[in-house]
Each structure stands twice: as structure tokens, then as C-alpha cells.
Specification:
By secondary structure, the chain is mostly helical. It has a single domain, classed as Growth Hormone, Chain: A (Up-down Bundle), CATH 1.20.1250. Helix content is 80%, strand content 0%. Helix 3 runs parallel beside helix 7. The two termini are 32 Å apart.
Length: 209
């Protein structure tokens, strides 16, 4: 287990990081404003579910492969970018279509979950960030490094779930108010599509790494 004196600064750091706007938060806001609280929360669930893959990968050292391999990093980077752009254009193309039925809304919720899941999972920055951040709070003298990484990773993702869930609820409430305007039915899909395309382009052309 991580030392108690390490957990407090770790918590402060994680909260500050989670409150910083990023691709996941922008996607959640777009979902909440464009389609409501339920869809936004479903997207949050997908983002959080990515931890089931990311935390074990990090704890057992697989993340180091992605950090050192430019090819693996590039494949994940451009796959994630292409996926976001694809989703964005789907929303833009469907903006002029009639309102979906209840059955279609269920499919949309399922799609939102997997969009959140894959959008977070295939973004190499998520895994590389965890690899760079979490080990700073690991002390081998406190026991198994793998166990400490699991604990820190779970705490990190749990705080992210709380922050993202709050953002989903707030943006969903705003979306409900905006949808009272009939014209918003047309613009909501365009909003989601534009943001997703923008996120994909940002990920593809970001040369900061």
C-alpha cells in the first residue's frame, strides 16, 4: 500500500489534473449539451471502464512498451484521431435527419458507452500519462510496486469518475434547457459532431509528444 503521507499530495494532484479541461471532458460536455444527462453519464461510464484495461497494463509493465515504441504510439495516436473524426462526421451528417425513436436512443446510449471507452483507451496520452505520473508516488519500501500502482490507479480513476460524472450532470441540465428551443434540435448534432472532429484533429496533429 502507498504510504499515508504520499496519499494526500497524490489526491490534490489528481483532483487538479481531473479538473483541467481535456478531450474526455470536452466529449462529455458535448454529449451532455447535445443529447442530455443520460447519454453523458453513459459516456462517463465508458471512459471509466477503460481503467479495467489501463490499470492492469500499467501495473504489469505493458505501458512501458507503448512509451518506448514510436510505432505503437503512432498507431494508437492516429487510430484514436481517426475514430473521433469518424464519429464527428457521423453526427454532422445526421444533423438534418428527423428526431430518433426511443429504440434508436437506446442504441445511441450504447454507442456513447463504447465511444467513451475506446476514445479513452486508444488515446496513448492516457496510458503514457499514467506511466509518467503514478510511479512518482510509489515507494518500494512500502511493499509491492504492482499493488501500489493498482491502488493509485484505482484512486485516480475513481476521482475522475466523480469529476466527469458531475460535469455530465451539469452539462446535461444545460442541454435540457437549450432543447426547449426547437432550433436546438438541428444544432445539437452539429455541436457534438464539430467537437468530436476537433478533438480528433487535435490528437492527430499534436506534436507536443
Amino acid at each position: 500500500m502507498p504510504a499515508v503521507e504520499v496519499l494526500l499530495p497524490f489526491l490534490f494532484a489528481v483532483i487538479a489534473i481531473q479538473l483541467s479541461p481535456g478531450p474526455d471532458m470536452m466529449m462529455i460536455i458535448a454529449r451532455g449539451v447535445g443529447q442530455g444527462r443520460k447519454i453523458a453519464l453513459t459516456c462517463v461510464a465508458g471512459i471509466s471502464a477503460a481503467a479495467l484495461v489501463q490499470i492492469p497494463a500499467l501495473a504489469f509493465g505493458v505501458a512501458a512498451i507503448f512509451e518506448r515504441s514510436e510505432i505503437a504510439y503512432a498507431v494508437l495516436k492516429y487510430a484514436g484521431a481517426a475514430y473521433l473524426v469518424y464519429l464527428g462526421f457521423r453526427f454532422l451528417l445526421s444533423a438534418s435527419k428527423p428526431t430518433q425513436s426511443t429504440e434508436a436512443a437506446v442504441t445511441s446510449a450504447r454507442a456513447a458507452f463504447f465511444q467513451g471507452f475506446w476514445g479513452n483507451l486508444v488515446n496513448p496520452k492516457s496510458l503514457v500519462f499514467l506511466l509518467a505520473f503514478l510511479p512518482q508516488f510509489v515507494d518500494p519500501s512500502q511493499g509491492s510496486v504492482t499493488t501500489q500502482l493498482f491502488v493509485l490507479g484505482i484512486i485516480h480513476k475513481s476521482i475522475g469518475l466523480l469529476v466527469d460524472g458531475s460535469v455530465a450532470i451539469l452539462s446535461g441540465a444545460s442541454g435540457n434547457l437549450l432543447r426547449k428551443n426547437p432550433r436546438f434540435a438541428v444544432w445539437q448534432e452539429r455541436l457534438v459532431g464539430t467537437i468530436l472532429v476537433g478533438l480528433g484533429a487535435r490528437l492527430a496533429f499534436d506534436n507536443s509528444n
